[in-house]
Automatic annotation (TrEMBL), chain A:
SMART domains: AAA (SM00382)
Domain ABC transporter: 7-234
Protein name in the entry: ATP-binding cassette domain-containing protein
The UniProt record lists the keyword DNA damage: no
Annotated keywords: ATP-binding, Nodulation, Nucleotide-binding, Transport
Record has ATP-binding as a keyword: yes
Organism classification: Bacteria, Pseudomonadati, Pseudomonadota, Alphaproteobacteria, Sphingomonadales
Family annotation (Gene3D superfamilies): P-loop containing nucleotide triphosphate hydrolases (3.40.50.300)
Single Gene Ontology MF annotation: ATP hydrolysis activity
Source species of the chain: Sphingomonas oligophenolica
Family recorded in the similarity comment: Belongs to the ABC transporter superfamily.
UniProtKB/TrEMBL annotation, chain B:
Transmembrane segments: 20-45, 187-210, 231-257, 277-302, 314-334, 373-391
GO cellular component: membrane
Protein name as it appears in the record: ABC transporter permease
Membrane topology term: Multi-pass membrane protein
Length: 314, 411
């Protein structure tokens, strides 16, 4: 990872019809990092990315992309996969990739050669000369993804790249993103699926209601919630409750409670002393999903039409 | 050339190439290319039908002279002499039929209009020096001709049956300077030619942005390329299609032109524009380009706001009206060079290419064309910038980009 920031945004604001859909968002994407922008639907993720790409102009705030205040000045060094995928249906797959490269300054001949090689690499070699309209949705999406990197950009922006992909292709995409990072590219992507972000992000920002609610590493996010203890006594009765912290909740044979400030050891000593025994014990760190729900708020997530796992902290 | 400009040109040409290829290498393009054949075929079929109907009735139409048999050769000879003045058969009066008079020529003349053998257009009877001429609803010109014919016949009779033959020496002259009528005809030809071509071709650009909107490619384009380059690229791409169309049909028409009879040459020789033929051809091509770019940029900008094919189709009528209005204005300017209406047509951006093409036929000065082309280019840039801005605001839902001078300078 380099020292400089590939992308910075300071107080970005965008209003649609008087409504502030992005309201003072700050981002700092380190060079060479995989940076996730997380948020529920309608949080302002796509609008933020579009402002950083120069597709739309912010109503307020400052941005710097690859060292330039105007993203257009470095458009040849940026790759972009929009949320709404789109290719010309009558184009052949190889030509579509070369065309996307040509828009970013790659000569057509090189683009076509790279396109064929890249398609071969991802298992689409048989479809090089197929027209886009004949490809499956997943294949077309992969073609567009290849088109976004064929010119070997320094910054790759992916808007909801995992949506619409089956689990196998999602896994392939994760590997693809990691490979791009290893190549030296900075990757900025948006998602509302926490598992991908948890696995691959070096840093992330959580946006909700147009505002940035969190910025840091995955560990930082998870660390915002206390660890939890899952304890199973040998004695299945309720008498053990008197020896547990007040927030302990029974879930079948298992008791759950937050890891106490003084650690678990004093409590364990008491439990053993009182003869409740230890049939099972584990200390869990909260996942990114739980941290996300905690940061954004259950109501905001439900308002965005997304499911919230039961039992999550709000 | 600066890096920014070079990149803009490269991006514009990438878009242009994509649009050109996507348009030309499709079966539909053949239909478009040969549309004039289809149109011409329908026209020819209609024309043949009309000619058949018209020829059927014209073949039976006659002018009738009720005269003593002795006068028949004289009037026939006079008729032959007079008909030589007509340039083509369509302009000639109906054929002459002479009929011997009965005891009541007036009744005979009236009865001629009910004759089952022919359709009388006009009927002459009575003394040749003061004949009576009856004519039907469309026979006024035929009646005039019969009057002239009677005079010619009378002169021949007075001179003993043989009118003196004038032996003239005819020498065809070529003009040192273009004739006023030739210039006007050239001007009209130029205005009409550009109107005809742009009417066919510039409307094609209206729906081109719809493809990107429907395929959602616009997001990728907008991220990689300034919208102005997208618009200009699409315009250039479709202009390439138009040039291909014009080149194809220009070649075909040139070949057909070489097959025209030699008698057509003098008529064409009259079409001498004031700036000379080579410069006129160059200006015609330039003004066709400018007319296409001007109208195309307006249509592209307006069409880009439409989101459905229905909306695009709804735009075709106002577009056609706009083009016809510009044609009418430019035609008026070509007919009245130097007047205020000509000045308006020359200056108004959308009529300027048409009017200036006519101007080239009417005036030998070249500097107005340099100024006009620069003026028109400026308006192409304005229309594209406005179209892109409206698209950015309306479709991409963005505020306007900051003016270049207010943007932070690249590091």
């Amino acid at each position: 990872m380099g020292d400089a920031s590939a992308v910075t945004a300071t107080g970005l604001v965008k209003k649609f019809g008087g409504r502030r859909v992005v309201d003072g968002v700050d981002l700092t994407v380190p060079t060479g990092a995989i940076y996730g922008v997380l948020g529920p639907n309608g949080a302002g993720k796509t609008t933020t990315l579009r402002m950083l790409l120069g597709i739309i102009e912010p109503d307020g705030g400052e941005r710097s992309v690859l060292g330039h205040a105007n993203p257009r000045a470095v458009s040849d060094s940026i790759g972009y996969l929009p949320e709404e995928r789109g290719l010309y249906p009558a184009m052949k797959a190889r030509d579509a990739i070369a065309f996307l490269g040509a828009l970013r300054g790659l000569d057509r001949k090189t683009g076509r050669a790279r396109a064929a090689a890249m398609m071969e690499e991802v298992g689409l070699g048989h479809a090089v000369d197929e027209k886009i309209r004949k490809l499956s949705k997943g294949m077309a999406q992969l073609v567009q993804l290849l088109g976004s990197v064929v010119h070997r950009p320094a910054l790759l922006v992916l808007d909801e790249p995992f949506s619409g992909l089956d689990p196998v292709n999602q896994e392939k995409l994760e590997a693809f993103i990691l490979a791009e990072r290893d190549r030296g590219a900075t990757i900025l992507f948006s998602t509302h699926i926490m598992s991908h972000a948890e696995r691959i992000c070096d840093r992330l920002a959580i946006i909700a209601g147009g505002k940035r609610r969190f910025e840091g590493t995955v560990d930082d996010a998870r660390g915002m919630l206390p660890q939890r203890v899952l304890y199973t006594p040998r004695d299945p009765g309720d008498a053990v409750a008197a020896a547990l912290p007040r927030d302990a909740v029974r879930d079948g044979a298992v008791w759950r409670f937050e890891l106490p400030d003084g650690g678990i050891e004093p409590w364990l000593a008491t439990l053993i002393e009182r003869g409740h025994g230890i049939a099972g014990l584990s200390i869990e760190r909260p996942g990114l999903h739980e941290a996300f729900v905690s940061i954004v708020g259950r109501d905001a997530i439900e308002a965005a039409g997304e499911p919230v796992a039961p039992g999550m902290a709000a | 050339m600066s890096g920014h400009l070079r990149r803009t040109i490269r991006q514009t040409l990438t878009i242009a190439r994509r649009d050109f290829v996507a348009t030309v290498f499709t079966p539909i393009f053949l239909l478009f290319l040969f549309a004039p054949v289809i149109m011409g075929s329908f026209g020819a079929i209609g024309g043949m039908g009309a000619a058949s109907v018209s020829g059927g009735s014209a073949g039976k139409t006659r002018i009738v002279a009720i005269l003593p048999r002795a006068a028949a050769p004289t009037i026939a000879a006079a008729d032959t002499r007079l008909r030589a003045a007509f340039r083509n058969p369509d302009e000639e009066p109906p054929p002459l039929t002479t009929v011997d008079p009965t005891t009541d020529p007036a009744a005979q003349a009236r009865a001629a209009f009910a004759s089952p053998d022919y359709d009388a257009s006009a009927v002459l009877y009575g003394p040749i020096a003061a004949p009576q001429i009856l004519y039907g609803p469309r026979g006024a010109r035929a009646a005039e001709y019969l009057t002239l014919l009677a005079g010619e016949t009378l002169a021949a009779e007075r001179l003993g049956g043989n009118a003196p033959q004038v032996v003239a020496t005819k020498t065809q002259m070529s003009r040192a300077t273009p004739s006023a009528s030739g210039q006007h005809e050239s001007a009209f030809f130029a205005v009409f030619g550009i109107f005809f071509l742009t009417l066919f071709l510039s409307g094609q650009v209206v729906g081109t942005m719809a493809e990107e909107r429907n395929n959602k490619v616009i997001e990728v384009l907008a991220a990689a390329v300034p919208l102005e380059s997208v618009f200009l690229g699409k315009l250039i791409g479709m202009f390439g299609v138009a040039v291909l169309f014009v080149a194809f049909w220009g070649t075909v028409i040139a070949q057909i032109g070489s097959l025209l009879p030699a008698s057509a040459a003098p008529a064409l020789a009259e079409l001498v524009p004031a700036v000379g033929l080579p410069m006129f051809a160059l200006l015609f091509g330039t003004y066709f380009t400018m007319a296409y770019l001007l109208l195309g940029s307006v249509f592209l900008g307006v069409g880009a706001q439409a989101s459905t094919m229905r909306e695009i189709q709804m735009l075709s009528l106002p577009i056609t009206i706009l083009q016809v209005a510009m044609f009418a204005l430019a035609t008026a300017a070509a007919s009245h060079p130097g007047t205020w209406i000509a000045t308006i047509a020359d200056v108004l951006p959308l009529s300027s290419p048409f009017a200036m093409a006519g101007h080239a036929a009417n005036s030998p000065a070249l500097w107005p064309h340099v100024a006009a082309i620069a003026w028109q280019l400026l308006w192409v840039a304005i229309f594209i910038a406005v179209g892109a801005r409206l698209f950015r605001r309306g479709v991409l839902q963005s505020g306007s980009a900051k003016p270049r001078w207010r943007r932070a300078k690249p590091n």
